[in-house]
Queue: 2 jobs
Job 1
Amino acid sequence: MNYLYLLKRVAIAGLSVFVVSSVVFGVTTLLPGSAANIVLGTEATEEAVQQVNEDLGLDRPVYVQYLDFVGGVFTGDFGESLISGQPVAEILWPRLLRTLQLAVVAMLISMVVAIPLGIVAAAFRDRAPDFLITSGSYVGLSIPSFVSATLLLLFLTTPPLALFPKGGYVPPREGLVEWFHHLLLPALAMNTVILAYVLRQTRSSMVETLESDYIRTARLKGVAERNVLFKHALRNGLLPTITVLALNFGWMMGSVVIIEQIFAYPGMGEMIVQAIENRDLPLIQAGILVPTIAFITANFAADVIYTMLDPRINLGEE
Amino acid sequence: MSLEQQNRRAEGDPLLSVDSVDVTFEVADGTIRALRDVSLDVRSGETVGIAGESGSGKSTLALAIVRYLDANGRVDAGSITFDGTDLLSASRGQLRSIRGNRIAHVAQNPATALNPSMRVGAQVREAIELHQDPESTAAADERVYEVLDQVNLPDPEGIARRYPHELSGGQQQRALLAVGLSCNPDLLILDEPTTGLDVTTQAKFLDLVEDLKAEYDAGILLITHNLGVIAQIADRVNILYAGEMLETGPVEDVFTEPANPYTQALLATTPEIATNKDVKPIPGRIPELDRIPDGCIFADRCAFATEECRSGDVGMAAVAEDRAHESRCLHWEEVVANPVVAGERERVERTRGEAIMTVSDLRKYYDEGTFVQNLLGDHEPVRAVDGVSLTIHESEAVGLVGESGCGKSTLGRTLLKLHAVTDGRIEYDGRDIHDLSKQELNEFHSECQIIFQDPEASLNPSKTVRAIVERPLKLFGDRGPEARDDRVVELLDQVNLGADIVDKRPQELSGGQQQRVGIARAFAADPSLIVLDEPVSSLDVSVQASILNLLEDLCTEYGTSYLLISHDLSVIEALCDRVAVMYLGEIIETGATDRIFDPPYHPYTRALLSSIPSLDPHDDRDRIRLDGDVPDARDPPTGCSFHTRCPQKIGEVCETEDPPLDDVGDGHAVSCHLDEAEMSDPLDADITGS
């Protein structure tokens, strides 16, 4: 592995976080209405407002507030909620963890289902299995997640088929089965589009790989078809899929807002909606920044996995 | 599949026997009959060549033998027998145990034929483990190193651990050959093994195949479009044209007394260096294979064709009594008696005018590194062009020749301001092009045009020929729409294209036609200088000849200057008045074309010239082989940059002092420490190095 290349990627990721936090700070600072009024209501006295401003550090010059905010982002300190007075981190972390559980389960489902299906479709290209899988994926692609969420909710949580709870969250320490039971439906709902997308990406890059010259070399060496697929094609054919997965991870963090609302899942998405309703600025800021950082991290991870799979990327600069 | 089919062939029976094979491909609008009635035999210890232009079906034949046709292709008739086994009816399991084990197929284009994410050693070892059942991992490794060593790869253990992209093109080709040789195959199929390699690398690869043939006693089926390669290493040759075998026989007989008009035309259209041969284009083009005309397939392009050639089946006629030499021609006796031959070239004396472009001490570095990297001093730029001085005169064709990676294309593009200059001066018409205003730069771009290697990639696929050729007229000219239309037709006529193609798009044209459109486009701007970057290297040899003749005529007619960039000395010789030989970003020899091809030689030029395979199968002069690969342009050798590979290296002076480009008479300059006498040995002198 090329460490200079990794270092460069880390630097780029760090820079991205810095830029995004600057933008978020700029936008939220420019929002109309003062924080003190949110805390105290519009009838507050002059002295009370001043007191709150002092408490929140809003009387300091803008650039000091800015540096303080960006510094906070890098150390995980987002200030305190204007409504409850609790530190934002304390509100955020448990919810973030729950959302991450949802996203990771969704991601795993799409990997475990979509990649093998994509490989099967490519291996049986233009034959019945391919036809079936590809047309199935079209259906998946054309159903938005809020529709599939509603449909799943309608058919699988109400009699006669009340197989799943209607929503909510059970922590894993209260029973893994229960935990998974609550998680599966929202994860599936998030998945329909992504699954189809990952499947199609896997199929097309595997098809392309299977047509390449080195696959011909392998077959003409006498390698059996199973090994052609798994030893020669898979590693090269899955590279683009990794990028797609990473990009989708970010997309999932966004779509989670709707899904969590529908399934009453106490995650980040639900928190952001509440924070916006309450105009709870620090919570809004954190709610925007954290998914963004997750997105950047996922892409960084994709880059690293790429370098491990494709020896050519070690060259770096080219 | 039964045991009877497995019986060993009798002594003297061919190892591989292809008998009257027909191959067809089903496509959307019909059936393509890619191979018709093709027969050939390969015996152990024998090298059989298949030669033909693109579209002749050479690779299809090779893939039919290993049963690897595309899903829409099938063998309709005939039989393919390998060592007693009927390959066409062999089961999948049988095929797997034959492929890679007894028949090795070495594909063209090694850069894509090796798995990019597997180490070279693992790719060789895979075949060994599949077929040889090695006792232990160590034994398999041992065999891997042995094979890599046999194909002359330096440091086999190091190479085995590398990935394909970490090898040079020549090394990749040898690694692919090692995969093929790893199980001691009985039959080795080499599909265009040297296409894309430099002549020096090609020469070494051919030597290697010769050596290995002696060692392995395998039969070799060699597929190539390069007749010189066949003449050098094949024992017998089969000439394939549009899916039919037109002539077959021992190489000596076919090359010295070809008995088929197509073979003769092919030989007459192949350039040879230092022979004054006037290459003769083959008229017409290869027929579409979805409608096979009745009679002889070559009749439409043949000078001997008569009425009887155009109907019925034309079979193989025995030229030699034992049928060792056969020709598919009704008039072969007449053809032998009155062969098609290339004439003597008459050099058109062009009077060269004033200097139009003067380059002094030009440098172009790539990847110069960031400020920090340079501050730390651990970064070296790629010195693509490193101190080149060159003058191009009016109506003069200057050739730039060298191996891939020597910087010749970069130089050509930098001259046209397509790349920024790192250091040095380019003067056009007496002015430094760096100082040109926007208006003047526009004029400069109209006066200096470029023609690229890949004609298809250089033409916009969504535009018609008319739009493509008209574009420079609109950009740089002041003609009205009708005058432009007339000019387009006139230009197309000058490049021998009919007005009927103006509404076609590039993909509807053949490669030769596309390059003609590219030439017409370049001339539309009425340029005074054209940079031709490998203009014919992606074209078939018969098309190549006509494009070179066309360029020659246009140069004489318009008085345009050319800078012709090519790795092929015969192309340079055909067109250029002066030649500059480049090595690692520097010009190491320059002079009038005939002076370059005669002594005194720079040792590098000598090696280039002597690496070109001759069309004469009897030519077995000693050839100079260069050791190793071209050094890294980030870190060129000190002193003379060629000293690491030079067979005539004197000693320390070569490593420490960079020899100046000294004039040895008549503007012929050589950059070498050798004295003139030492450089003046004839080309076939025995130079063994010190």
Job 2
Amino acid sequence: MDRFGQRVYAIAYHFTLKREDADELSQEIFLKIFENLDRYDGGFPLVAWVLSVSRNLCIDRYRRRKRENSFRFVSDEAVTALLKSDDDPATLALTKERTRMLFSALAEVPEDLAEILILRDLNGLAYDEIGQALELPEGTVKSRLFRARAEVAKRIRARHESHSLGGPLASIAMAAAGLV
Amino acid sequence: MSCRELERLFVSGAAEADSARHRATCDECERLGAELDRTVSLSAALRPPAWSPALRRALLDIPRSTVSCETADGLLATLVEGEIAPEDEARLRSHLSRCGACAEAAATLQSMRSLAAPEAPPWLAPRLAAARPDRKKRSFWRSAFSGRMVVAYAYAAALIVMLLGLNPTAVVRRAGFAGLGESTRNAVTVAESSIGDRLGALQEKAIRTLAVWRGRIGGYGRAAVSNAFALVWRPEPKKTPNRPRLGKDGGAAATPVDVDVAAGQREELSAPILRV
């Protein structure tokens, strides 16, 4: 229960980026799960089934948070929950900035793409789990994931170019990513 | 003071002939002109620098060794998934080493998977567990006499009574509990006869309806045949005496009374046919 609850909570948090909303959403998801538990026949992986019955709840919350412009200016508190505490301060600062930019860019891509990226890259779901949850063939999941990443990369690049951050920060970024 | 006429003529764009005339008269300008001529001829004699084959190859290899930012977006997506081809990865990394914005995008996308999972608050797990409904297994007798089952039994009993044609109140009143068996048999007999009567009535009604429709169909058929004959064997209409017609040429047009007379004749003709 704890492990599964933690997993559901992580999904809820990634769709809302707010503690209070994630608490509420995970409770709603659990209510939904228990209401529909007799319909679960074990044919799906459990997490995929949970997502399929609670997808609308997640999307509704995500839309609400988008309307509130919450992803445009992501708070420190929201990002801190996603950072590993054992990182050194410099890495923490860099990851915080990147995470903020990531969610900001994510909010600008279409919902169906953002949804897949959240499930795959933030929650580590497999292709077939995502396909079963969203009722999509695996090929469609892959192509959407590709488009989602390309769109997010494009937006992050555009932000860097427009903010002229190609100098010192980029050098630090490249050094940190081991690309130089 | 030196003569600067040659320079002035050059700057003003004067013709070569003017410069030559001045050089013929001025020694100093003649010397300067000769030096200039030598320099020009020397420059003209130089060959353009030949680029090396290695440089040429390197320039031609640029498209194969790197990518544009737009292409890098797509390659990044495959890099994150670990499905990038080795040659594409080399081109992408070559691009990332020069382009800060794309490097940052790559690092951000790659960092997604290494983010920590948000910790659920400690009070959430018990609350989620509390959301689970109580699903204790009920005993057989408890479930057999639950509210829903009692209602279902009542409906089933009522249905059986209706099907058997029993009137429970009358049965109980007439026979009491002692003669319940006999009353039940009587009631079944009554119900059987009642069902037989109803079936007989239904049959009679069906036969009557069938007879009516047969009559109607026969009537319509005969009427259709008669009409067909009337159309083929139409009797000649009676000749009416000629009346003076007054139309455009001064005669009188047909009056409404004439129209009514003609309609009356048509009705007289068709009436016996339709009456068949």
